[in-house]
Amino acid sequence: MKEIAYRFYSFREPIVPLAVQEYARNKTVFVFPTGINKHQAIQTLQRFWSFDDLQIFTMDEFKEHLFYRAQPLIKEEKRTIAFYLSLDDEARRFFKINSYFQSIELAQNFFALWEEFNEERVAETIDPDFFERNGIELVNWQKETFQQLQRIRANYRILLDEHGFQDQIFFSDPRFYDLADLDAYNRFIFVNQFYYTRLEKWIIDQLSRAEKEVHILYQILPSLVDIEQLEVKPFSLPDLLSDQPLPDLQIIRSLDSFSMLVSFLQLLKRESIQTVVDVDFCNKPYAYYLSAQSFKLRTTQRFLQTSLYRIFDLLHTLLRQAIHDATKNRWLLPLDVVLQAVLADDLFRYFAIRTGAQEIAALQERCSHTVLRWIDAEYRLIDIRPEKLNLGGLEDQDVRSWFDALLVTVDRLSRISSITALVDLIDKKEGLDIHAMIHPADLDSTDLLDSFYRMLSDFAAIEAFPLVQSWTDFWSLGGAPTTQSLQTAMNILRLFLEYMKAKQIHLFEKQPFETPVRLTDLLDTRNMSYSSVALLNLVEGSLPHGRKSPYLFTDPQRKLLNLKTFEEVKQREKYYFFRLLFSSARVYLFTCANQEQNIEMSSFVEEILLDFPKAKLNQAPGHCFGVVHAGISKPAFPRHRYRPPQEPDFFYLPYRDDFSRELYLSYTRFDALKTNAFAYYLRYMCGIQKLPKTLEMDYSSRLIGNIVHDAMNEYWQSLSANKNQLQLESTDFDEKKWNQALQAVMSERADYDLKLPHNYTNIYFQQILLPLIAENFSRFASFMLKKWRGRSLMVFPEKKWETGPDKLLMTPEQNDLFCQVWIHGRADLRLHDAEERTFQILDYKTGKSDSLQLDWYEWYYYLLDCSDWMNRVESAFVNLTESEEKPIVFINPRSGTGEGVMVIRRHLQKVLKKIADTGFGPPPQISHAKENVEISRADLLTPQIRQQAEARSAGGDHVECH
Question: According to the model, what pLDDT value does residue 962 have?
């Protein structure tokens, strides 16, 4: 057994080049902690033209060479699938696993735990008394969980043996140790690995026993290393600096991360810095502000950040949100997820038949408006089959083509039943065109296309492994129902997305305009030396990382098992941080401290300030958002900007004969004008429709009202069919006839199929609301029979297309806008008693009501023509959704004095006078003003601004917009 040799370097010595130069002789193996160290060692050898018989590994690569594997190693999704198959009923019940995707997190914890057990050579079985003897309690849930993990591990091993596979959690076993591949090498050099696992220590011991020459190199003081245990002792900052001074160091403290970035960019203008370290760069918003021409960012990018992944993710969302209509055996898509697809730029560009950016943007706006109109019309769903898309609003052929292309793709995806079927759909006609899915920028700057097909080949190989015989049966394991084919397709597509998540693409190196600044991670700086370096985001929680609850075992329990604890991980980060500082000539530390935002300076930086009060600490300027945003948003060319006046009347739009001396009003428009004149102007004068609210898969009051109104119209039309007059009898109000009318409406009108939610709310509607409406219909029947039994009646049930002529309400002399006001209306039901010449107006309600609406109908239908019929006309609301405690018929309390029309005229005269004086202004109530939050005055003045720009470009005089 040869004695192990130790060598210690100071922080100022570049350890990787020196180690290579000193130990690079024939039959030598170098082992480095990182791939960057390995790459630097190779460059050093090439620079000295050294071609000796050497082997250079990372520690992970080195361990793979030492353990023999007879069977192929199972990895990635194949590993997780095998894990899921090894779960028996007891394990599924214990961990509450009902589907494959619910098992992914458990699988990750399972493999991470057993891999760590292997690395630290912890026994597969643990005696609970072992913890108690050492004064640490192991609670029942931990014992039970660990026992289940042991059972799963045993079942998993049996499953792999049956299929001829091997897993890393089993082969890193001393029984499989074999030095045959490296036995010809005499010298093994381990270069500055801070932490050695117990398996790595065992390997070093085996090399020593095999009479190999082993050298362990450290970049730290010898007094801080326990040679017997191969461990670095706990240390403080002064311990590291006992033989050297503090480096040239500046600390810049900011209030927030954005101000920190601004300070850093300002420093780059003054100083030459080639390396920047940020432990949390990708998770910070400022990561998107840095140019690739000035910063050499990471050379890899996750699949998650590509247009290709986003498109597949949205297609999966469409399948996942689909609703099965069992009555017609079809699948329906909710309109909110269709709108989400329309508004997703990547997906929309893929299905757009146009190629120009402006054409695509215009088409996207037209498609989104089409969906919004469907939602506004109470539609909730569309059929997944493109030939069934007939909601209207598709006269624009380009809009129709886009929706057809989307639905054809979704329909084809819904039919896949295997991975092979998904692969066959790719790059087929009317299938999935991968090249078109990739954003042009990604085609030019990444290897996304090549990476995708390599990844697709690996994914397709899942079915080549004899693990899954039937995907339908596989998804049904654990009790998850997958009787529908679309659910199988959805799960396969989700499996594909999960497979993509772990993949990366490579960015192409482009020649920058200037020497780039390399941005890297703290872990990649291990054993590296720099002339100057800047460290960003040095805040508590990022460096050192925040404490996280470990899986299954607490930190004291992990320490007893010789597993890494939080303090050991923190000690390792501390070493990497200070080693980087002391091995660099100039260092700039950027940190944040803000008590209001609960941001604390890194404890590593605070340690520097405590031990070395003379360290330079500079406070960066306060918030820089305004200056930075102004610079970023500065237009590429100067433009005239409209500056609104500050007077209170700024929010009023002046009246400019907008009604053209003629004003036509229904009651709905009249109510809108008196409630919110500004909103009336936007909707009826400018044509700006109010955006529909967020689509909810529920029975809205409007939908219930439409169903009730249509059913009542159907009922009265069936009674009065082919009859000029009828007499009401008790048999006419049979509940059976009402149900027939309701079913006729629901079944004959195909659009109601797409308006109903098709979910659990159907139970509420069918079992609670419809019986209530039927009961109220009986109460309404009692009212009608009591009032009209035996009398000859003419019945006028109104339809949507039945509107009467406009009637004059006010002359120009009767209002301040000097316009003629015409009105029209549409009541739900009118009854005429031909003999007594009496009239009744009934209006159905399923929500709030305003008696002024009844006055409106009375005057429109009768009293404007014959005001002396005042005592012959009666009107009422019929609320068919009221509870039993409240009356369902509300009679208009008009006193018979002509007050109704006077109230309408007074309201209207007051509104028109205000418009004449101040214009269309916001309403006094905030609740009514919420309708306008998406509209700005600048939008309405855009035509005027455009006219000014055209006048200036034509050489006209400058026109100021007021």
Answer: 29
End-to-end CA distance of the chain: 95
Mean predicted confidence (pLDDT) in 298-308: 79
Q: List CB contacts of 680: < 8 A, sequence separation 6 or more.
A: 669, 672, 673, 920
pLDDT, tens only, 378-408: 888 888 888 888 888 788 889 999 999 999 9
175, amino acid identity: R
What mean pLDDT is reported for the chain?
82
pLDDT score, position 840: 87
Question: Rounded to an integer, what distance in angstroms lies between the CA atom of residue 515 and that of residue 268?
Answer: 12
Sheet holding 829-833, edge to edge: 726-727, 792-797, 829-833, 838-845, 873-879, 889-891
Q: What is the DSSP letter of 658?
A: T
Pairing of the two strands 330-334 and 616-619? unpaired
Q: Which amino acid is at 2?
A: K
The answer to whether 496 and 488 have CB atoms below 8 angstroms apart is no
| 583, 12 Cβ separation under 8 angstroms | yes
Give the whole-angstrom CA distance, residue 887 versus residue 900.
23
Tokens of 707: 């169903």
- Look at the chain and count its residues: 962
* Residues sharing a CB contact under 8 Å with residue 304, sequence separation 6 or more, in sequence order: 500, 501
Does the pLDDT value for residue 949 go beyond 50? Answer: no
- DSSP characters over 159-202: HHHHHT-B-HHHHSSGGGB--GGGTT--EEEEE--S---HHHHH
CA–CA dist 565, 588 (Å, integer)? 30
Instruction: Give the chain's count of helices (H) and strands (E).
Output: 37, 28
Strand 300-302 to 504-506 pairing: antiparallel
Of the ranges 427-441, 575-589, 864-878, the best mean pLDDT one = 575-589
Find out whether 397 and 429 touch, Cβ atoms under 8 Å: no
Residue entry with tokens 């075992």: 553
Distance CA 845, CA 701 (A): 10
Cα separation, 316 vs 497, in Å, equals 9
Amino acid at 881: T
Q: Residue 515: what pLDDT?
A: 62
Query: Residue 778 above 90 pLDDT?
Result: no
Question: Could you read off the pLDDT of 349-386 as tens digits, one per residue?
Answer: 999 877 788 888 889 988 988 888 888 888 888 888 88
Mean pLDDT value of segment 161-175: 83
Strands, sheet with 820-823, edge to edge from the N-terminal-most edge strand: 662-665, 820-823, 807-810
Q: Which residues are paired to 242 by β-bridges?
A: none
Distance CA 327, CA 330 (A): 8
